[in-house]
Specification:
By secondary structure, the protein is an alpha/beta fold. The chain is built from 14 helices and 9 strands. It has helices spanning about 25-30, 45, 50-60, 80-90, 105-120, 190-210, 215-235, 240-260, 265-280, 280-295, 300-310, 320-330, 350-360, 370-380; strands spanning about 15-20, 35-40, 65-70, 95-100, 125-130, 140, 155-160, 165-170, 175-180. The protein has a 6-stranded parallel β-sheet with strand order 1-9-6-4-2-3, sandwiched between helices. A 3-stranded mixed β-sheet has the order 5-8-7. It starts with 14 loop residues before the first strand and ends with a helix.
């Protein structure tokens, strides 16, 4: 059989366990992966009052595994935090990593794993397939429903010298196992639930219109869009309702599977630029840009956006219907500010656009933008 150029597709992900109580399998999975001493990467917010770190620690204890906690991780994890974590890993003679948290601890943990296995600085991994040696074993336990970091080939790290978020994209970034437990998301407040949910929506939409999408990514992306459209407002309004929490965790997983294998687009390229310069929440940046990028991309992926509209329960009548709905959807969730409200100024736009143009996510955008196009989109979101 002759396979035509462009028809080959690859789909990778971690092994995962989905459902309430999945976090309690941390010790068993760590032991199966050969753990002796574990670096538990998390953040201080989770240590204070959630009990989740204790749950995972007890699971490791039950299997007779020693562990060391590294919690010097901030939102939008920094390059120096990765290298500090790598130093702790070495000093404590660890041989595997467990990451507990949202996208920041998970991305930091994945980057730590690559840094220690390759004896390289994390910034040397910027770009696509720049990690020579596979990471040390990593188990991820996500505590937010949105990032998909626990199953993806991506890690996003802030280069503090340039104040630019770099994308590390490699199969080496895919964790060995992900324990996806909806119970861990009950501690999220309304604002974080909304922001991470909009992050998942942006993942799913960008994966579906990506020029690298295919049947398997389409299935996951569209189902994630349907779930988010139906369940995110309820998850925000009823934070203790496990039906909605579980639905959003499933949507985050499906969106993560989709974008990890189809990549992303202009929304994320621009959001990474904003996050690097202004250190703003990633989910909010995506939410504020999404409708404007859809408007720009629409002529180049019209049928796909019509499908997205129908998946969200709309008639699929045209670009205005979808963009207006996305704006109303995020506003209902409390994301009703503008980029100007968050500190973006007119004079920032040329530099933000230039950084966006260098982001690898832009390669799979359905329409190739110019720098002037990107500047225009930023201005519309001010």
């Amino acid at each position: 059989m002759v396979v035509k150029l462009g028809e080959l597709r690859k789909f990778v992900t971690s092994e995962f366990v989905f459902g309430e109580g999945a976090r309690f399998f941390a010790g068993r999975y760590a032991l199966n992966l050969g753990a002796e001493r574990v670096l538990l990467v998390t953040d201080r917010g989770l240590i204070k009052g959630t009990g989740l770190v204790d749950d995972v620690g007890s699971s490791l204890d039950d299997e007779g595994l020693e562990y060391v906690i590294f919690d010097d991780v901030t939102p939008n994890p920094r390059d120096h935090e990765v290298m500090e974590g790598a130093a702790v890993f070495d000093a404590e003679e660890c041989n595997m990593i467990v990451a507990l948290g949202g996208g920041s601890p998970i991305d930091c943990a994945k980057a730590i794993g690559a840094a220690v296995s390759n004896r390289m600085h994390v910034l040397d991994f910027e770009g696509v397939d720049m990690i020579p040696t596979p990471s040390v074993p990593i188990i991820c336990i996500p505590t937010t429903a949105g990032t998909g970091a626990d199953v993806s080939q991506f890690a996003i790290i802030l280069d503090t010298s340039r104040m630019v978020k770099i994308a590390i994209i490699s199969k080496a970034m895919v964790p060995d196992a992900s324990l996806i437990d909806p119970e861990t998301t009950v501690t999220m407040d309304r604002k974080l639930t909304a922001a991470t949910g909009m992050d998942a929506l942006a993942h799913a939409i960008e994966a579906y219109v990506s020029n690298a999408s295919f049947h398997l990514t389409d299935l996951n992306a569209l189902d994630a869009i349907r779930i988010i459209g139906r369940c995110l407002p309820s998850a925000v309004d009823e934070p203790e309702n496990m039906e909605y929490r579980e639905a959003m965790m499933l949507a985050s997983l499906e969106a993560g599977l989709a974008f990890s294998n189809a990549s992303l687009g202009l929304v994320h390229a621009m959001a990474h630029s904003l996050g690097g310069k202004l250190d703003m929440p990633h989910g909010e940046a995506n939410a504020l840009l999404l409708e404007h990028v859809i408007e720009f991309n629409y002529p180049g992926a019209t049928e796909r956006y019509l499908e997205i509209a129908r998946a969200m329960g709309l008639s699929g009548s045209g670009p205005g219907e979808l963009t207006e709905y996305i704006g109303e959807f995020r506003s209902h969730l409390g994301i009703d500010m503008t980029l100007r409200d968050l500190g973006v100024r007119e004079e920032d736009i040329p530099g933000l656009a230039e950084t966006s143009m260098r982001d690898p996510c832009i390669v799979t955008n359905p329409v190739k933008p110019s720098r002037e196009d990107v500047e225009t989109i930023f201005r519309r979101a001010l």
